Amino acid sequence: MKRILCIAAAILISAGLKAQPANHPLPSNPDTLRILAIGNSFSDDGTEYLPGLLEAAGIHNVIVARLYIGGCTLKRHCEEYETGAKDYIYYKSTKNVWVTVSKNATILDGLKDEPWDIVTLQQASGYSGKYDSFKPWLQKLIDIVRKEISNPDASIVWHETWAYATNSDHGQFKDYNKDQKQMYDEILSCVGKLKGEFNIPVVIPCGDAVQIARGTRLNNNGKVPATSKVYDLTRDGFHLSRQYGRYLAACTWFESLIKPTLGKSVKGNPYCLLDTEYSIPAKDAKLCQKCAIKAVKGL
Q1: pLDDT tens digits, residue range 96-107?
Q2: Which CATH fold would you assign to the domain 31-297?
Q3: DSSP for residue 256
Q4: How far apart are alpha carbons 282 and 225 in whole angstroms?
Q5: Global pTM?
Q6: Taking each helix axis from N to C terminus, what angle separates 244-253 and 282-297, rounded to the nearest 10 degrees?
Q7: Are residues 244 and 289 in contact, defined by beta-carbon separation less than 8 angstroms?
Q8: Coil, helix or strand for 161?
Q9: Residue 19 and residue 264: Cα distance in Å, rounded?
């Protein structure tokens, strides 16, 4: 009997060592859907036009917020929490319009603000394809989120960022041999690993959507000089262009989070940025939507 108990204990210990961190599925048809993006300027790019898409879809029960520091890594988010520094910019949309809540926020200001249903995380772009940079910081940040938010059933989601433009002069592009495909492949590899290791099955595949769109007429690569700032759907070699790039990313966020929770796809959404200086033809909006849908289906 003693031997049996020892074997059983060993099995339980082994199972515990292999157990994945707890996570929760996306909510289904909540009265109000609350989404918080913790990140950097790439989460800014990804969500900027999301309220416009929501408004055009007739959706008025979504709160979206972004809590960011430019270039912020997973490691720095954890350090910001430990020090309580007021380095974040906190934007929030409650009526499908972005409002600046604070330019001197702490990470707790965002985490405690709402009973968030979804919290998205991401790595700084230059490290997004370097898996060693995720440890131990991703788990620490997940633990912080779980400890501080008031909704115990919140879903933690990963925002997959994109590879740099082929003409990028970003200092960390050399870590990928200044090769866009290599960077993209390494980002995909990291996403594949973290989905299993950290139990984050839901991914917003902006990196895939951008790469798909780069193979369409939306891309100006080859149409303008390689010295152009607006190139490969970016505005400076790494941040998304304010027209097609950001619109495409917002479509990807919509299809990844709004469709499974509220049942409405981005397909056919009439929003064409007419309320901005970057309006796009309806046919190009549809192509962006198509690329976003393809990326999400490819997961």
Answers
A1: 999 999 999 999
A2: Rossmann fold (3.40.50)
A3: I
A4: 27
A5: 0.93
A6: 50
A7: no
A8: coil
A9: 34
Residue 245, classed as helix, strand or coil, is helix
**Both tokens assigned to 61:** 């029960």
**Tell me: the pLDDT tens digits for 187-218?**
999 999 999 999 999 999 999 999 999 999 99
Q: How far apart, in whole angstroms, are the C-alpha atoms of residue 166 and residue 179?
A: 7
- What's the pLDDT at 19? 59
- Dist. CA 266–CA 273, nearest whole Å: 14
Distance of CA 152 to CAs 24, 42, 63, 203, 283, Å?
A: 9, 27, 18, 20, 42
Strands 33-39 and 203-205: unpaired
Handedness of CA 15, 159, 138, 163 (dihedral sign): positive
Q: Give the C-alpha distances (Å, rounded to integers) separating 247 from 52, 165, 191, 257.
A: 10, 17, 23, 15
Q: Check residue 27 and report its DSSP letter.
A: P
* Structure tokens given for 88: 């974040």
Backbone φ and ψ of 105, nearest 5°: -95, 155
CA angle 294, 64, 151 (to 5 degrees): 105
Report the distance separating Cα 148 and Cα 50, nearest Å: 26
- Extract the tokens encoding 77: 């988010």
- Cis status of the peptide bond prior to 136, with omega within 30 of 0: yes
- 162, amino acid identity: W
Contact 118, 35 (CB under 8 A): yes
Phi-psi region of 29 (alpha: psi -120 to 50; beta: other; left: phi over 0): left
Contact criterion met (CB below 8 Å) for 262 and 59: yes
238: burial class by Cβ within 10 Å (0-12, 13-18, 19+)?
A: buried
- Non-local (6+) Cβ contacts of 5 within 8 A are none
Task: Give me Rg for the CA atoms of the chain.
Answer: 20
Burial of residue 16, with CB atoms counted within 10 A of its CB: 0-12 exposed, 13-18 middle, 19 or more buried: exposed
- Most distant CA pair in the chain: distance in Å? 77
Nearest partner of 34 among 261, 284, 294, judged by Cα: 261
